[in-house]
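In response to reviewer comment 3 from the previous cycle, which asked for concrete evidence that the modeling workflow produces usable outputs, we include below a single protein chain processed end to end. The sequence was submitted unchanged, and the resulting structure tokens are shown without manual editing.
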Amino acid sequence: MQKRLLLNKKHLDITISRLCHELIENHLPFENTVLIGLQPKGVFVAERIKSKLEEIIKKPIELGYLDITFYRDDFRRRDEPLKPNETRVPFIIEDKNVILIDDVLYTGRSVKSAMDAMSAFGRPSKVEFLTLIDRIHSRHIPIEANYIGKQVNTVLSQKVLVELTEQGKKEDKIWLIDKSK
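The workflow returned the following structure tokens.
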């Protein structure tokens, strides 16, 4: 197994800051825009984005957490039962601009599941997607991110491992792991 570091703490901080400025360009003053982090690691990324945005624009931004466990198309294919995480969307998304946030975009199936799960909370005016890592050339569904931290060419034998301090890790690191080597 071979590991290659994609982002360390310094580069992750710079990436989060850049993504926030892209969001500001498109959504300032954020009066009709909300953030929704996908459980589990997308929530950590969404909290960092929210915190940085609020630091820059000096205004609160609404954030929700969305669990997609029971909306996944492989939900019944697993040998072991899945454990859902918390869904907490304490606001109405009807006619809002929603920014879905996740750590990694791979096949696109998680984003599709999130769109299905999100429909229970209303019909947004617009939905955009933000991801830290975009594994290009690996989609099963034609989904693209509007905001991308870093694009990475990957093959099936590779995996992106996101380690964040919110998970109890010593420091932030995002790895590309090749299981074939």
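Residues 66 and 87 are 5 Å apart (CA to CA). We consider this sufficient to address the reviewer's concern, and the full set will be provided in the supplementary archive.
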